């Protein structure tokens, strides 16, 4: 009985739209603007599959462009060594 009610008044497409709207409104304004710009318009106008693909692509791009933790540690170590050498040379 519940299933019949839900299928009649809340079909899968309506449920997906509501979930997407709740998720989109939960974002901070800057993230929402960035996602809308990346999607070439309002994210709410995209299908759930297109939305998922867009966000997956953004995540992959972010992961590939971010420096790894190992790289950050190496940069910090190099900066620290240079700082110590400068202090030693100054003294």
UniProtKB/TrEMBL annotation:
**What is the protein name for this chain?**
Uncharacterized protein
């Amino acid at each position: 009985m519940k299933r019949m009610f839900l299928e009649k008044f809340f079909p899968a497409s309506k449920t997906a739209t509501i979930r997407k709207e709740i998720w989109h409104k939960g974002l901070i304004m800057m993230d929402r603007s960035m996602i809308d710009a990346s999607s070439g318009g309002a994210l709410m106008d995209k299908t759930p599959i297109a939305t998922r693909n867009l966000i997956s692509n953004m995540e992959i791009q972010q992961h590939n462009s971010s420096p790894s933790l190992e790289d950050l540690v190496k940069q910090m170590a190099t900066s620290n060594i240079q700082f110590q050498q400068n202090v030693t040379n100054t003294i």
